[in-house]
């Protein structure tokens, strides 16, 4: 089964179950939010978040005064929107919308379901896509892998705090569900976007946890040798993919 959704390309990856704040200021995405708000109350307000593979989030400065088109900033090499975006993304449910006096919107969205991007429509003010949702499978040995990832992630956090001369405040409780844990660790670890995208695209939870265990062990070993590391301080804030 496929469905059509508005698309919101970002330089970051959204995972199921994770919360993402968005500051919507470009005209094309303000139109997207306005269209969602115009839907009947009983209809879900959703859009697809996809990581950008070729291009940038914000459109470049235009010579004319007109608003950015749906492709502005994307596909700077190929010119093909399908090639400019990673093909696996996450559906975002709008949890709250705060209109601002200057026309911007402050959004809080929650990732729900992974999807394949099958086609892109560039005919409107913003991109829309034909998507096919992806089911979630645990895979073999997810429970045992989750226990190993939890231990590795806690050590990684401690090493990261040490590299940033920060302190870990208490020990945050991690989810027992292997799938939820796999997405939380992917979001909360300081990996670059291509790595985070590969974790999103893993066929099942067990394979995602296996990849994370290897990544965490490698990164923790690197951190042990570094006196300082420029990185997002994830040890003193709530988990968020943004």
Overview of this protein structure:
There is one protein chain. The protein is of the alpha+beta class and 242 residues long. The chain contains six helices and six strands; from the N terminus they run ββαβαβββαααα. Strands 1-3-4-5-6 form a five-stranded mixed barrel. Helix 3 packs parallel to helix 4 (178-188), helix 3 (142-163) runs parallel beside helix 6 (205-224) and helix 4 (178-188) packs parallel to helix 6 (205-224). The longest helix is centred in the middle third of the chain and has 22 residues, at 142-163. The two termini are 30 Å apart. Residues 229-242 have low confidence and may be disordered.
Q: What's the order of the H and E elements?
A: EEHEHEEEHHHH
Mean pLDDT: 86
Measured by DSSP, the beta-strand proportion falls in 15-25%
Strand order of the largest sheet: 1-3-4-5-6
Oligomer: single chain
Q: Tell me the overall shape.
A: globular
User: Which regions contain 5 or more consecutive residues with pLDDT less than 50?
Assistant: 229-242
The computed structural class is alpha+beta
Provide a brief overview of the structure.
With about 240 residues, the chain is of the alpha+beta class. It is about 30% helix and about 25% strand.
Secondary structure layout plus pairing:
Blueprint: E1 2-10, E2 19-24, H1 27-37, E3 46-51, H2 81-84, E4 88-99, E5 105-121, E6 128-133, H3 142-163, H4 178-188, H5 193-201, H6 205-224
Parallel strand pairs: 1-3
Antiparallel strand pairs: 1-6, 2-5, 3-4, 4-5, 5-6
Helix pairs in contact: 3-4, 3-6, 4-6
């Amino acid at each position: 089964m496929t469905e059509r959704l508005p698309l919101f390309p970002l330089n970051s990856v959204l995972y199921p179950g994770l919360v993402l704040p968005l500051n919507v200021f470009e005209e094309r995405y303000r139109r997207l939010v306005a269209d969602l708000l115009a839907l009947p109350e009983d209809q879900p307000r959703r859009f697809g978040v996809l990581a950008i593979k070729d291009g940038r989030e914000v459109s470049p400065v235009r010579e004319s005064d007109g608003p950015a088109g749906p492709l502005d900033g994307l596909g700077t090499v190929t010119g093909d929107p399908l090639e400019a975006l990673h093909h696996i993304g996450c559906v975002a449910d709008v949890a709250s919308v705060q209109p601002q006096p200057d026309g911007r919107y402050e959004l809080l969205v929650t990732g729900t379901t992974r999807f394949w991007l099958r086609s892109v429509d560039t005919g409107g003010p913003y991109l829309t896509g034909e998507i096919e949702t992806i089911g979630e499978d645990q895979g073999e040995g997810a429970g045992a892998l989750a226990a190993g990832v939890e231990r590795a992630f806690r050590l990684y956090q401690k090493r990261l705090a040490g590299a940033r001369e920060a302190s870990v405040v208490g020990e945050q409780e991690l989810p027992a569900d292997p799938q939820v844990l796999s997405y939380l660790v992917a979001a909360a670890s300081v990996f670059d976007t291509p790595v985070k995208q590969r974790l999103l695209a893993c066929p099942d939870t067990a394979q995602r946890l296996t990849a994370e265990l290897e990544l965490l062990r490698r990164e923790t070993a690197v951190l042990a040798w570094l006196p300082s590391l420029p990185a997002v301080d994830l040890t003193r804030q709530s988990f968020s993919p943004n």
